[in-house]
Amino acid sequence: MSSASTLPGRPGNLTTEEEAKLKELWLVTLKVFGVSSPADSESTSPPPATPTAPAALTVEEDPDSAISLSPDSRKKSRKSFGRFLGRKSRPEKETEKKESLVQEIAISVDASDDKYGHTADFRAALANQTPAELREAFWGMVKCDNPDGLLLRFLRARKWDVEKALVMMVATMNWRSKELNVQGIIEKGEGGYAADADQGFIKQLRMGKSFLHGCDKEGRPICLVRVRLHKQADQSEEALEWYTVYIMETARLMLRDPVDTAAVVFDMTGFSMANMDYAPVKYLIKCFEAHYPESLGICLVHKAPWIFQSIWSIIRGWLDPVVASKIHFTKSIEDMEVFIPRSNIIKELGGDDDWEYSYLEPIPGEDDPITNGTSIRAQLQAKRDEQVIEYEALTRTWIAAGADDSEKVRNERFGVAALLRDGYWEMDPYMRARTAYDRTGVLGVKGKLDFYSYKTNAPIPVAKKVVETSADDID
């Protein structure tokens, strides 16, 4: 794996203007989550701050503060957005809070710049979910990410427009928790889908329609899609969508700082019109553009036959120009080697990596910690909740900090972000069903990543290698 450096617009590598935008987004995000002021005493969220943590400053309270909205954020339709930021907090019931939020955030996004209807989803989320539910969905998505990194994905995707980033992020939280139930898919896992009457999900894993293996020259994990294996009749559209999200969520666990994107290779070898299916292509594009922004680093379309040219002309019209710019067509191993070391290209594609996909079936009992470890999970979650509260309090301090204190608070936030990352891996066995990557040692204990363990070690069933946490191990 290459020693990738931190790219611009990421945690630890922000310009002054970018950091200001990040502070703006955090300010309104915490407001939406109902934790921006200790005055929100009736929220069902945990206490938002330690006694010494200052309440969040608002635009009305300190119009000259660095945390005030930038001028472009207060123009025209953004006026009500600014009023929302400046609203004094007061004790309210959750239902009143929802109604208040809907009324006070009068966001207007140009329909030509709202491809996936995020504005409507945003309003639906505020109307139908409590601040505590949206907050829970957000921190559930953070997992082992740096929380700043997650917000920055949405900011970069929306060209640093704070309002659009907020709308996109909240719409995604609504999609994850209400529309799709991403956590439910993760907890059910391969063992659960293998026991289903509908075998569409597990069939795709068994045949190796797509899989994660190795890294490109930038250290990005590679997802290889063998297009010739797709047949529309093999699975329902719903099973295909679950499978797509499952692979993307698994890939997220393989990102290691500073790498925060993945590489996708579509192997078109043996492709025919019998493999063509526009629905999953549209869904994958929507996932990358609408719900997993800034997650695609590069996409290679390998050995596309001539019949794909007319298909590509249609698909290209669906793509955001930024996403389209990341797609490259390769015809030979030499073309592919521009992006992936030959040593990391599997022999199936003409490379030197002597590895073949083989699905290792779920092992009975491997997911027992999810059902039998509820008390331990609760204790670990309580520990994480305290870390989240500390992080949110430090974030408010960082937003309000002057130049002299900013660096100190910034470092403290990074420290708590590291605790959240490590704490996720403690919780992982109790909330995520095991994957084939756990069973083969690619994803090891506490998230250790090793794509090439097969070169020296035989696969070790996860049931024999996962050491469960006991109540005595939790601080």
UniProtKB/TrEMBL annotation:
The name this protein goes by in its record: Phosphatidylinositol transfer protein csr1
Residue span of region Disordered: 36-99
Protein origin, superkingdom: Eukaryota
A Pfam family reported for this protein in Swiss-Prot or TrEMBL: CRAL_TRIO_N
Natural source organism: Discina gigas
Bias-annotated ranges (Basic and acidic residues): 89-99
Basic residues bias locations: 75-88
UniProt-listed InterPro entries: CRAL-TRIO_dom, CRAL-TRIO_dom_sf, CRAL/TRIO_N_dom, CRAL/TRIO_N_dom_sf, PITP/CRAL-TRIO
SUPFAM superfamilies: CRAL/TRIO domain, CRAL/TRIO N-terminal domain
Residue ranges annotated for the CRAL-TRIO domain, each copy included: 198-357
